[in-house]
């Protein structure tokens, strides 16, 4: 069964599919960049968003909700009549329609749109609702509304209140008889409610345990069987002074109201996990390098197996957000081939003589800071981390100072940030390997607030060029 996930590999980013053998397949090129993809119930299509070029210089890029067939020869279907700011919120169980969310839920202006997958045109289904979950039998949609948890009729959009105290729905039971949701804590923190039946009741018999799970970033991954829900959460909680990068997987028995721990998964987070359709295996983003947050896709069988890498991301790459194909269907995609990265510019050491205000002189070491780019030779005042160095003089004119530039903004002691040009550029045609750069009104790193600026020249030489 293939698993779809976000991938960043060799300066390329997008969606790939990995099969059970660990082979990474790349989504063939389409007319625009695809993102936020959701499998269709039959596993033959994606619903998502496509960003396309406006077709003319200076125009804004256009984002459209679309249905993308897995078959690369089949056409893409536009879900809305016109471009619209809307996000995919899921499929109908029969795969005939998609749900779109548009507007701002926090401003009370969100709306739920129903968009047929054949592109026949969207319609506004319900106002002031968001975070929806379609029942498995297709007869109702649970969603958050201004009054709490509501039931939305997928035919006419009529809303029926389910629970007034609710934070978000966690999903329907497999038989469509009840909705599990998260609540503020009165009468429960993890609750279950049956449409047309009794009022909300606690999901667990232990109320303190319910509240602690909410504090530990609980995520509902799905159902292992008709009455057993798999959940993932932080095993320590926010109050732990030494938190670990790990996830505890546990089962909730709806009939007994109990929580049974299964396993602790190391180097993972709850929100980046997915349960297989048969309830046997969890796919998750494994943090190969905690410092760089580089992740690969691993799997873990819940019957006592060990976690193992399915496909390891290359150095500098990262794979995340696994999503299982709901129903096995053939995918005839080419194996992923990493684009050839552009060679880095050649670099060399150099030296320089800095003259400020015609009087103050400073010898400068340009260690690895000379390089060629096209027809230009640049003096790069940046180190490997992307920071830049600016020279400054103390008020008495005797001390040189260094100030670190973060992403094109120079930090001055006590002055905050100011935008600067991080490069000193030597125009084509100058003597190869040496030159002179003049600067004016350069803020002094040691300025006491009077607005003092520095002017002068930097004579430089890079013996590695020319």
How would you sum up this structure, described in words?
By secondary structure, the protein is mostly beta strands. It contains 1 helix and 38 strands. The protein has one helix at residues 207-215, and strands spanning 3-9, 12-18, 24-26, 33-39, 45-52, 62-69, 77-78, 86-91, 97-102, 111-116, 123-127, 129-134, 141-145, 148-152, 159-163, 168-172, 179-182, 190-193, 201-202, 219-225, 228-233, 246-253, 258-266, 273-275, 281-289, 294-301, 308-311, 318-324, 347-356, 360-373, 376-380, 388-393, 400-406, 409-412, 416-419, 423-426, 434-443, 453-461. The strands form 9 sheets. The chain has a 6-stranded antiparallel sheet, with no helix packed on it. Strands 3-2-1-28 form a 4-stranded antiparallel sheet, with no helix packed on it. The chain starts with a strand and ends in a 5-residue tail after the last strand. Mean pLDDT is 77; it is low at 373-432.
Total count of helical runs of at least 4 residues: 1
Largest sheet: spatial strand order: 36-31-30-29-38-37
Main sheet attributes: strand count, strand direction, barrel closure: 6 strands, antiparallel
Number of strands: 38
Globally, the shape reads: globular
Rg, rounded, reads 29 Å
Give the overall average pLDDT.
Answer: 77
* Residues in β-strands, percent: over 45%
Stretches where pLDDT falls below 50 for ≥5 residues?
373-432
The separation of the N and C termini measures 57 Å
Q: What class would the helix/strand composition place it in?
A: mainly beta
Helix coverage percent? under 10%
How would you name the oligomeric state of the polypeptide chains in this document? single chain
């Amino acid at each position: 069964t293939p698993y779809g996930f976000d991938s960043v590999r060799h300066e390329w980013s997008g969606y790939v599919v990995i099969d059970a053998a660990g082979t990474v397949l790349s989504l063939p090129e389409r007319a625009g960049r695809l993102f936020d993809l959701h499998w269709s119930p039959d596993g033959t299509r994606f619903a998502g968003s496509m960003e396309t070029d406006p077709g003319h210089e200076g125009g804004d890029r256009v984002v459209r909700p679309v249905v993308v067939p897995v078959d690369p020869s089949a056409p893409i279907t536009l879900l809305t009549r016109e471009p619209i700011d809307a996000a995919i919120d899921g499929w109908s169980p029969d795969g005939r329609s998609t749900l779109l969310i548009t507007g701002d839920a926090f401003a009370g202006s969100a709306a739920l749109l129903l968009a047929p997958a054949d592109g026949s045109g969207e319609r506004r289904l319900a106002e002031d609702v968001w975070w929806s979950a379609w029942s498995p039998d297709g007869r109702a949609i649970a969603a958050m509304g201004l009054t709490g948890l509501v039931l939305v009729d997928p035919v006419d959009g009529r809303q029926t209140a389910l629970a007034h105290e609710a934070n978000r729905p966690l999903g329907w039971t497999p038989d469509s008889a009840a909705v599990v949701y998260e609540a503020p804590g009165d009468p429960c923190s993890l609750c279950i409610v049956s449409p047309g039946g009794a009022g909300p009741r606690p999901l667990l018999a232990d109320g303190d345990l319910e509240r602690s799970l909410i504090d530990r970033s609980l995520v509902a991954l799905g159902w292992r069987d008709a009455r057993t829900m798999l959940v993932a959460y932080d095993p320590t909680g926010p109050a732990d002074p030494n938190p670990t990068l790990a996830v505890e997987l546990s089962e909730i028995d709806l009939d007994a109201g109990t929580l049974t721990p299964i396993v602790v998964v190391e180097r993972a987070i709850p929100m980046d996990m997915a349960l297989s359709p048969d309830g046997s295996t969890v796919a998750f983003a494994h943090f190969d390098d905690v410092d760089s947050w580089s992740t690969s896709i691993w799997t873990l069988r819940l019957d006592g197996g060990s976690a193992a890498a399915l496909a390891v991301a290359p150095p500098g790459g990262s794979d995340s957000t696994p999503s299982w194909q709901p129903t096995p269907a053939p995918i005839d995609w080419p194996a992923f081939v990493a684009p050839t990265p552009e060679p880095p510019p050649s670099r060399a050491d150099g030296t320089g003589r800095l003259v400020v205000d015609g009087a103050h002189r400073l010898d400068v070491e340009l260690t690895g800071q000379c390089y060629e780019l096209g027809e230009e030779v640049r003096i790069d005042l940046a180190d490997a981390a992307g920071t830049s160095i600016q020279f400054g003089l103390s008020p008495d004119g005797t001390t040189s100072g260094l100030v670190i530039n973060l992403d094109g903004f120079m930090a001055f002691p006590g002055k905050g940030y100011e935008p600067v040009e991080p490069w000193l550029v030597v125009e084509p045609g100058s003597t190869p390997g040496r030159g002179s750069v003049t600067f004016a009104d350069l803020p002094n790193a040691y300025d006491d607030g009077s607005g003092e600026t520095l002017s002068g020249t930097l004579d430089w030489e890079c013996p590695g060029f020319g």
